[in-house]
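PT: before anyone asks, these are the final sequences, not the draft ones from last week. 222 residues across everything. Please model them as a single complex and drop the result in this thread when it's through.
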Amino acid sequence: EAGVAQSPRYKIIEKRQSVAFWCNPISGHATLYWYQQILGQGPKLLIQFQNNGVVDDSQLPKDRFSAERLKGVDSTLKIQPAKLEDSAVYLCASSFAVGVNYEQYFGPGTRLTVT
Amino acid sequence: AQRVTQPEKLLSVFKGAPVELKCNYSYSGSPELFWYVQYSRQRLQLLLRHISRESIKGFTADLNKGETSFHLKKPFAQEEDSAMYYCALSSNYQLIWGAGTKLIIKP
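LR: through. Structure below.
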């Protein structure tokens, strides 16, 4: 079974520029997560989708971050404009459904550097 | 507030020695806890969950509600155990993560 796919793997941008990340979850997985992992820290949930609806986006900085999952499959995460503190690895994960019994499967991540 | 603390950023042990990676949590209620692992150049993946009470790759973790701990243990470390280990707590169907411990197994 193919795993969670993410692109690009690396991105370097200047502050105030915009950037977008793409995620393709495991086929059949209804729940999709975007995490931000700053160097030396654990992942922090930014947004969680159930199919194409948002379950939780309480930690998403909505003034500059946006995310969508229009058809309940692929998802994009956008930052506009980027700040230096946005430098991090952005992880996408998916699970069959919501709940502790459903394992989250992670993609390889996108490493963003904002200069 | 819900929180997961991994007090050691780095743990270095010799091959064959016992390993204990510490995890403490703060949670009001009955916690669901997990250990995730990330090997070099690989993806973050689930190692074990406390509700399964399983042993994976020789690792075990016991939930101690009195000490609010969920330490990961292995009696005899192997070189392939070198990795980044994260403890995570489920809260409202979301995971709250510790900062991780880098485990280095010396030959």
